[in-house]
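Re: How this chain folds, sequence and tokenised backbone to follow

Filed under: protein folding, tokenised backbone structure, sequence and structure records.

Contents: The amino acid chain and a row of whole-number tokens, matched residue for residue.

Body of memo: The sequence and its backbone structure tokens, given next.
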Amino acid sequence: MEVVNALGRRKSAIARVYVSEGTGKITINKRDLAVYFPSGILQYVVKQPLNKLGVADKYDIKVNLCGGGFTGQSQALRLAIARALVKINPEDKAALRAEGFMTRDPRAVERKKPGRPKARRRFQFSKR
């Protein structure tokens, strides 16, 4: 099997993923998964598509991650891994879609409007 690549985005985070056959090693920006995401919850989020299909120890994954915070990065990575797995085996798409791993979350930070302190917040109203 050759290397399969995919892209995942969430908020302002972008994950580029390269999946090849191997032993289940996930390398993010030349660091191990446990070093890059010390939180067990974020590691679980990243591995969700692999665990759903039962292929966690079948593929080596190399990742370029940039932008955003740790939550957005982990969810961008989950989407990228799911997309790569579908490229490898298209029959897995239905199972991953049922769990919601194939959907790009469109929510992002709303832009700041002119004449206001934040996107929707207004300055305090003074009657006199």
Observations:
- The mean pLDDT is 94.
- The chain has one domain: 4-99.
- The longest strand covers residues 13-21.
- DSSP finds four helices and five strands in the chain.
